[in-house]
Amino acid sequence: MSSALDSEIGNIRAVGPLSQPPGSKYDRLIARAKGIAARTVVTHPCDETSLRGVTEAAEAGIITPILVGPAAKIRAVAREHGLDIGGFELVDVAHSEAAAAKAVELLRESKGELLMKGSLHTDELMREVAASKTGLRTARRISHVFIMDVPTYSETLFITDAAINIFPDLDAKRDIIQNAIDLYNQVGLGTPRVAILSAVETVTSKIPSTIEAAALCKMADRGQITGGVLDGPLAFDNAIDPEAAKIKGIVSPVAGRAQILVVPDLEAGNMLAKNLTFLAKADAAGMVLGARVPIILTSRADSVRSRMASCAAAVLYAEARRRGTALPAA
Q1: N or C: fewer beta carbons within 10 Å in the chain?
Q2: Which SS3 state, helix, strand or coil, does residue 128 take?
Q3: Is residue 239 part of a domain?
């Protein structure tokens, strides 16, 4: 896990004016999550941005925070910026590393339903999450999903994995896809159309990602991936543009109408998400899946709506898992 992940996630944010209200596709997620007040363990919220995000989500009734970190420092930040944390449970630990360890311990003891990153480095938190004996691993591969609100696209667009798995193999991609499908299903968006991206839409031995895309689609046919409609390989244009798919002669329920975009590797996903953010003026929320609990990775660059959407999606996912079957423990 690279410490550069913090800046990479933070850079994938909206800039400039939008052609429609920012975060407009997030509204129904936020509305559905209000009042659930899921118990959320917040790790080291020791700056204004991270602590304000917590108080805003709590005021909206989306989360009930448990703050883990240096108590004196957290209270000082709250006083300095006029943030009311008087009603929050506060667990005092010495520093960020201890906060990550304690947060994971609390979740292993079932004292919370969600994990939320504060002002510590992502790799500090994920190191504790991924620890084989004391962490939050399950039998499922851990992966990240960006939930993109692209003003020029009618669908809420999921992109995975652009932040955790650098060069995932076929088995890892199966879990990455299943994580994204489960999230899409359980936040109430329905059955997703999943496009497995490559540079071209035909299978060729010269481009290994096309072979993997075809294999993943066959895995879905055999019930190894469930809950979504898959197609691939698809190039980006014919995955999201109906006219491009028509010109190429692609007849598919996914082509031109994709809702989940599965990228070949982290580099491709990171570039895609940044392109949508800076050229299409998209907004980006997101979380880490595949652990025992959803993990909300907020950034100092997040908009208020992105923060709220990340919390809302995680809360809805946790609530659905509470009503159904959780991921099996490793």
Answers
A1: C
A2: helix
A3: no
Q: Rounded CA gap, 40 and 236, in Å? A: 36
Burial class (CB in 10 A: 0-12, 13-18, 19+), 19: exposed
Query: What CA–CA distance (Å, rounded) separates 133 from 154?
Result: 43
Over residues 258-279, mean pLDDT: 94
Count of domains forming the chain: 1
Range of the domain at 311: 5-192+259-323
Distance CA 100, CA 96 (A): 6
The CATH number of the domain where 152 resides is what? 3.40.718.10
Nearest Cα residue to 297 out of 204, 163, 167: 163
Please tell me the predicted confidence (pLDDT) of residue 15.
Answer: 38
Residue 226, C-beta contacts closer than 8 angstroms, at least 6 positions apart: 178, 181, 220
115-174: pLDDT as tens digits:
999 999 888 999 999 998 899 999 999 999 999 999 989 889 999 999 999 999 999 999
Taking the alpha carbons of 327, 108, 289, 132 in that order, is the dihedral positive or negative?
negative
Residue range 291-328, pLDDT digits in tens: 999 999 877 677 777 888 899 999 999 998 888 755 55
Write the single-letter amino acid at 203. V
Strand pairing report for 143-149 and 157-160: antiparallel
Helix (H, G, I), strand (E, B) or coil at 125: helix
